[in-house]
Amino acid sequence: MNPAGALVFILGYLFDIYIMIVLARFLLQIVRADFYNPISQFIVKATTPILKPLRRIIPGFGGIDVASIVLMLALVLIKMIVIILIYNGTLAGLSPLDLGITVIKSAANTLLNFYMFSIFISILMSWIAQGSYNPLVALLHQITEPVMAPARKILPPMGGLDLSPMIILVLISTIKVLFGLGQGPF
């Protein structure tokens, strides 16, 4: 039996879900997505209680919601500290520089995973529910389109088949391998 491993799995999973929701809130603002979409409304309601007081301390800059970024990084840091404390019982010997680099790498990995999952879901939904309206599909299209548009210029749709997601997925995978993202518990 591994109760510490089970606890780390559950806590890590819960942290990751909320980190993804905060990341989605940030990306929705960046791409100026439809905030009347029911999924957007859920994301706003789930993040506003923490972001509203944080925005009083950390203002936005140039149309970028800096408070969302700070919250996401803080959540990643708290998650890492909790996991380290569960496994080691102490933070002794932990360099702040190493911790900072690991937080940034983990946040970057989360962003890349978010785009990978969004593109996969978009691809699947285009096969399953082609031509029908779905709030999730509409939102995913708004989030992924700024990334997909340059790939469509390189490889335009051919015969009704859009292969540009493959370019983006290979690029994301290459970045993850190049920077060693997604390896280890964080």
Number of domains: 1
Low-confidence spans: none
Largest sheet: none
The share of residues in extended strands comes to under 5%
Task: Give the oligomer, counting copies of the same chain as homo and different chains as hetero.
Answer: single chain
Structural class: mainly alpha
Q: Give the termini distance in whole angstroms.
A: 22 Å
What is the average per-residue confidence, as pLDDT, rounded to a whole number? 90
With helices defined by DSSP (H or I, 4 residues minimum), what is the helix count? 6
Name the descriptors.
mainly alpha, 186 residues
Explain what the structure shows.
- By secondary structure, the chain is mostly helical.
- The protein has one domain (3-178).
- It has helices at 3-30, 38-57, 66-88, 96-128, 135-154, 164-178.
- The mean pLDDT is 90.
Which helices and strands, and how do they pair?
Blueprint: H1 3-30, H2 38-57, H3 66-88, H4 96-128, H5 135-154, H6 164-178
Helix pairs in contact: 1-2, 1-3, 2-3, 3-4, 4-5, 4-6, 5-6
Short description:
The protein is an all-alpha fold.
